């Protein structure tokens, strides 16, 4: 009971200020402890209060049940696991595209697999061969645990690697309360998100093409690496040219910070694919398919995207997911129903 009073009192001070010290003692004497807790929930939301209480009590990991299975992750992860906790699902439109793509088997490559929210549902199809790449040690441990708990067909191969444009060891910066925002650190200059203060570790990197993965068509690839996407395209050009579906994040600010060639990546997409939609976040349920020439405009900042160094705010708040999917112009792909 003393712990409960201490925790709720701490939350109360955040919600209604330091004057709540007397107030929370008063309501505890009346036996109305839930009043402060209800106020905290109304102000912060259930998830924030739950995570704060858990962290205070030294809870490190939590299991979250949802439509895609039970996933274990850090209690401090307000992004990936937090979204799954809130919505009980993850990236529904992408999940739908992948299910359509893999009606009769194939290969899925998940670059930046995080804790497995995209990879695990795909691997539930025993005829799909899955490869997952995640360099951050804690994320990788959760990824391996979630695959072991949810994937029963031995069709998943995991690699604790960062894919890049060369084989080397790279500094890797760690974000707080966001397991999906760890990044390769090429630039240590002051950043718009105070990246210069983030702790760093060293991770191994490799070129996708150098891995010579055993691929069977159709091939779908998801790339979500917080700005390393252009470098991954350079290191995986031969493999990615075989893809029938590619979904990748387009975040100009982070791409510039790492230093990849965004125009080269866009040219590759425009030369290889026929059409695709643009989604503004992971939870979007409706995406409009457009001719691939529309993606060439991304290099000029069209569609409200900020590509210029002088206009960071739209890029920071609108980290746009680009899914340049559709069949390559010279291939026969046995799925057509995804364009809805």
| Whole-angstrom Rg | 22 Å
Find the CATH topology of the largest domain.
Rossmann fold
Proportion of residues in helical segments: 25-40%
The amount of beta strand, in percent, is 15-25%
* Overall pLDDT metric: 78
CATH architecture descriptor name of the largest domain: 3-Layer(aba) Sandwich
Q: What kind of sheet is the major sheet?
A: 7 strands, mixed
Global structural class? alpha/beta
Question: Helices and strands, in N-to-C order?
Answer: HHHHEEHHEHEHEEEEEEHHEHHEEEHE
SSE topology:
Layout: H1 2-16, H2 20-29, H3 33-44, H4 46-56, E1 61-66, E2 69-74, H5 80-87, H6 92-101, E3 106-111, H7 119-123, E4 128-133, H8 137-150, E5 156-159, E6 162-163, E7 168-173, E8 183-184, E9 200-206, E10 219-223, H9 229-235, H10 237-240, E11 245-250, H11 252-258, H12 262-272, E12 275-276, E13 278-279, E14 290-291, H13 313-317, E15 320-322
What does it look like?
This protein has 340 residues and is an alpha/beta fold. The longest helix is centred in the N-terminal third of the chain and has 15 residues. 39% of the residues are buried. Helix content is 35%, strand content 19%. The protein has 13 helices and 15 strands. The chain folds into 2 domains: 57 residues, no CATH class; 233 residues, Vaccinia Virus protein VP39 (Rossmann fold, 3-Layer(aba) Sandwich), CATH 3.40.50.150. Helix 7 links the parallel strand 3 and strand 4. The strands form 4 sheets. The chain has a 7-stranded mixed beta sheet with strand order 5-4-3-10-11-15-13. The chain has a 4-stranded mixed beta sheet with strand order 6-9-7-8. Strands 1-2 form a two-stranded antiparallel ribbon. Helix 1 packs across helix 3. The C terminus is likely disordered. The protein is globular and about 60 Å long.
């Amino acid at each position: 009971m003393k712990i409960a009073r201490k925790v709720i009192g701490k939350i109360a001070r955040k919600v209604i200020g330091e004057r709540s010290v007397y107030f929370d003692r008063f309501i505890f004497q009346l036996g109305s402890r839930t009043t402060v807790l209800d106020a905290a929930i109304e102000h912060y939301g259930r998830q924030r209060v739950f995570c704060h209480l858990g962290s205070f009590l030294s809870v490190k990991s939590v299991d979250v049940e949802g439509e895609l299975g039970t996933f274990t992750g850090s209690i401090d992860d307000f992004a990936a696991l937090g979204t799954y906790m809130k919505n009980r699902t993850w990236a529904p439109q992408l999940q739908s595209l992948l299910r359509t793509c893999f009606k009769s088997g194939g290969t899925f490559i998940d670059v930046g697999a995080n804790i497995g929210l995209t990879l695990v549902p795909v691997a539930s199809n025993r005829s799909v061969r899955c490869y997952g790449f995640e360099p951050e040690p804690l994320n990788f441990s959760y990824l391996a645990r979630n695959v072991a708990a949810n994937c029963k067909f031995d069709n998943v191969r995991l690699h604790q690697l960062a894919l890049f444009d060369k084989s080397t060891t790279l500094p890797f910066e760690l974000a707080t309360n966001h397991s999906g925002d760890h990044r390769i650190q090429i630039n240590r200059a002051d950043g718009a998100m105070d990246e210069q203060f983030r702790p760093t570790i060293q991770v191994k990197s490799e070129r996708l093409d150098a891995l010579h993965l055993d691929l069977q068509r159709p091939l779908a690839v998801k790339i979500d690496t917080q700005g390393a996407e252009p470098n991954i395209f350079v290191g995986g050009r031969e493999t990615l040219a075989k893809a029938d579906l590619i979904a990748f994040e387009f975040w100009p600010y982070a791409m510039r910070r790492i230093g990849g060639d965004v125009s080269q990546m866009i040219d590759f997409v425009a030369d290889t694919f026929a059409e695709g939609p643009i989604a503004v976040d992971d939870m979007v349920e409706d995406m409009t398919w457009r001719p691939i020439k529309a993606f060439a405009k991304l290099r000029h900042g069209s569609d409200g995207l900020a590509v210029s160094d002088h206009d960071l705010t739209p890029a920071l708040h609108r980290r746009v997911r680009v899914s340049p999917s559709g069949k390559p112009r010279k291939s026969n792909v046995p799925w057509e129903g995804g364009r809805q």
